[in-house]
Amino acid sequence: MSVLLWWAGIKRRVPMHSTRCFLSRVDLFSKSELLPWCARKPPCWSQLFLGSACKGNFTHVIAKKHQRGQKSQKKPRHLGPPDGSWQERLADVVTPLWRLSYEEQLKMKFEAQKKILQRLESYLKMLNGVNGTIAAPRSEGLCCFLHPIIPSPVIDGYRNKSTFSVNRGPDGNPKTVGYYLGSWREGNVVCVRSNHLKNIPEKHNQVAQYYEILLQQSPMEPCLLFHEGGYWRELIVRTNSQGHTMAIITFHPQELTQEELCVQKETIKEFFTKGPGAVCDLTSLYFQESTMTRCSHQQSPYQLLFGEPHIFEDLLGLKIRISPDAFFQINTAGAEMLYRTVGELSGVNSNTILLDICCGTGVIGLSLAPYTSQVLGIELVEQAVEDARWTAAFNGITNCEFHTGRAEKILPQLLKSKEDGQLIVAVVNPARAGLHYQVVQAIRNCRAIRTLVFVSCKPQGETARNIIELCCPPNSAKKLLGEPFVLRQAVPVDLFPHTPHCELVLLFTR
Ligand SMILES: C[S@@+](CC[C@H](N)C(=O)[O-])C[C@H]1O[C@@H](n2cnc3c(N)ncnc32)[C@H](O)[C@@H]1O
User: I need a labelling partner for 169 at 20 to 30 A (CA). Which of 230, 276, 453, 484 fits?
Assistant: First the structure.
């Protein structure tokens, strides 16, 4: 099997498996001349900070193209299209690239990542001056080397987690389980069943379908809007590669007594163990009382109604435990490619400490633990840290230490205690909101950190701000005193086929 890398200007076929192995840092650099040059004007502050680096890219183009085609059939409010086209409209919103071949999707994503990097780099050039600190090999107007995009090994049904809403369907039925379409502001939101979406596996749709049957049998109302009352809320379904399935039902308790809540929980359990829902063959079923859009386990505990409390995944030779509240990359096979890329770029060795910031269930650090002297992980979600500790113990990994809490609070103290001259490789993989300023400051001001791998699923907006703060000239007013980092390499890894999203792995050194 081969993958055509023409979108990267490389007009030759390379075997697919070659993108799967650990990338060599030397090999990655040596391909830099293959990318054509393309000059760009530097963007202004607001463009970068407001995240417009990616605005108006392919999602926009596809949506616009689709809208143009639909203009003549515009329907009045609430009078929607017939059922089939509701599904098509949902697919255009959730998976806007679904009409394209996967090769075309990859080409678009690669171009989008290139544009983001070009804008970022021209901005950094402006900040640092032409002879500033961005001295890495050049390619296509980029100071860093942009590698070809690594494709997802699985293209359809790759999601291991889906979140289904409950609301009025196109036919007006308020107990429809699916995905939202429309806008709350315009008051035209409908909930459309998702069984045609290319990224959702059949198993998730099956559980959603039976959840809908449960709701329709129930005398309890759904909770459509918080201020209007009602009980039934979201359904989350998680699966692993072995087909084990965890379902989490969120339920607004309103004024129900503990006894009344117990009746509801018993009804749900009965439905999924002995009733029609038994065909879903759930491995575990959780119930969460939820009075907010999202509740953590601390805010409202996940209550196990039956089955195994955790789901497990085999990845990079490790058995990994995943709790209901823990983050896990939604495309398991793609995550493996992502983590291999991170591992290779990190250049860790037995003399380095690996700092895994925003570590989730700890997979990045744990997979690199055998190659490094120590792993220090920091993660906000308690259940995820418990998972990381369990995974370390189960897999016999003893050189890892995981800290629970906000990285902005923990990291400065942790780095102070590691000032013994040992080199530290930092890996950051923050949520979309990017890194807290204090985290950037701590990394920048720690001389032992010479290598930084930044993984971002949204490299514009806050991440662009983070990067600027990591790479700008020293600024005492902002307490950014250490030597600036230099962006060396960028590797896009596609974890989200049919959508415009893509992970970008950035290697900085200084
Ligand atoms: C994109 S996930 C990455 C997780 C992990 N590195 C992985 O690949 O599975 C981001 C993680 O950052 C955590 N997080 C968010 N804000 C944080 C903070 N202020 N301090 C520490 N962790 C945080 C989230 O709970 C989540 O687990």
Answer: 276
CA–CA separation, 507 vs 375, rounded Å?
19
Cα 430 to middle of ligand 1, angstroms:
5
pLDDT digits (tens, 9 = 90+) for 93-150: 999 999 999 999 999 999 999 999 998 888 888 877 654 444 455 556 677 899 999 9
Domain boundaries, the chain: 2-53+99-146, 161-314
Residue 359 beta carbon below 6 angstroms from any ligand 1 atom: yes
Kindly give the number of the ligand 1 atom that is closest to the alpha carbon of 359.
Answer: 6
Q: CATH topology for 161-314?
A: OB fold (Dihydrolipoamide Acetyltransferase, E2P) (2.40.50)
User: Helix 462-471 vs helix 437-445: angle between axes, to the nearest 10 degrees?
Assistant: 20
For 84-134, strand residue ranges (E) read none
Which secondary structure element, helix H or strand E, spans residue 419, and what is its range?
A: none
User: Scanning the structure block, which residue is given the tokens 């680096």?
Assistant: 53
Condensed to tens digits (0 to 9), the pLDDT of residues 53-63 reads 333 333 343 44
Neighbours of 69 (CB within 10 A): 9
Q: Is the CB of 406 under 6 A from ligand 1?
A: yes
CA atoms of 321 and 357, how far apart (whole Å): 19
